[in-house]
Amino acid sequence: HNMFLLLVEQAISFIPCLPSGSHTVVELLEHGQNVVVVDNLYNASYEAILRIEQITGKKVHFFKCDILNLDGLRKVFNKFDVWSVIHFAGLKAVGESTQIPLAYYRNSITGTLNLLQAMNETNVKNFVFSSSATVYGNPPVIPIPETSPIGSTNPYGRTKTFIEQILMDLCAADPNFNAALLRYFNPAGAHPSGLMGESPNGVPNNLMPFLSQVAIGKRDKLRVFGDDYPTKDGTAIRDYIHVVDVSLGHLAALEKLKTNPGCVVYNLGSGEGSTVLEMIQAMNKAVGRKLSYELCPRRPGDVTNLTADPSKANKELNWKAEKTLDEMCVSLWNWQTKNPNGFEGFDVNPPAEC
Ligand code: WQD
What we know:
The two termini are about 15 Å apart. The chain is of the alpha/beta class. It has helices at about 20-30, 45-55, 70-80, 95-100, 100-120, 155-175, 205-215, 245-255, 275-285, 310-315, 325-340; strands at about 5-10, 10-15, 35-40, 60-65, 80-85, 125-130, 180-185, 185-190, 220-225, 235-240, 240, 265-270, 275, 295, 305. It is built from 11 helices and 15 strands. β2, α1 (about 20-30) and β3 form a beta-alpha-beta unit. α3 (about 70-80) packs parallel to α5, α7 (about 205-215) runs parallel beside α9 and α9 (about 275-285) crosses α11. The chain binds UDP-4-deoxy-4-formamido-beta-L-arabinopyranose. UDP-4-deoxy-4-formamido-beta-L-arabinopyranose binds near residues 92, 132, 223, 236 and 299. In the C-terminal section; belongs to the aldose epimerase family. It catalyses: UDP-alpha-D-glucose = UDP-alpha-D-galactose.
């Protein structure tokens, strides 16, 4: 979805309905910020906004708007005295991006350029970007420092790389412009209340939402993509990080922007790698029974290991992933059991359009 978070004077912010986005709203609200959400609701639900209000007891302003609609963005930017933007935007499936690259580039690059244009016209100088570990491609060293070479292997990853580059160029051109590029590793889990979590449309691309749908009986078994990787059990390693920790990373990045740092880059990861089989075991423990899976060939585009070296963010943002794998699995299962179909079926119409 086209979703972004915008911090306004007195800290009004927009939030994306992506799990890490809507969780970021909750954390911002609970840390005394105000929030405005802008979403084209392409495959998101306004219900997520109502849940945020339920969790926090605070009002969330909402505008239905596509970031490809520059005039719509302008209207919103002119409604508020904007301080900063956090931009999570866009489509996020690696495999899908190889099938419809133009949609990925148009949605992500043109959408971001529109956003930056609306910011420029209203003198907004602070930007936090939701980037991804996928920009590292197949990294030479594990754990991965921010200085690891960039080498995306798919259009999705390249959209992240290109936007990072645009922001670096913008910061080089305008000494008052500040951008924090946050390279997410693998967000997992859900809000502890069980009121909010990932609600993928169709078949989930990602491991944990798929696994929780197996647990709830929506999918018959997990296909494990590859057991011939050079790892302890042959399955691929990722750095799973709780969505609440990812959200708190954004609050820390916003604080960093207040110091006028220019362009800064951080890994948002735990620093702990887990194999697919270890994630299945962790979920079995949370669910209380063994979830079925079958070993299948590797998924094209996957790499052996993406584990963060999070020490730069730990130090410079004074931020650290605190939640455990068990908390990720328990919160995910709590969300899934309370919302067997995610936000499906909650089709409340949003109050305002751009
Ligand atoms: C994790 C591991 C799969 C599904 C991508 C993006 C990244 C981020 C998360 C947005 C891999 C294996 C998966 C399945 C499996 N996107 N797997 N069976 O590919 O590491 O990262 O999504 O925030 O930017 O690059 O995440 O969850 O798809 O896969 O075996 O049904 O689980 O092979 O090893 P990935 P993932």
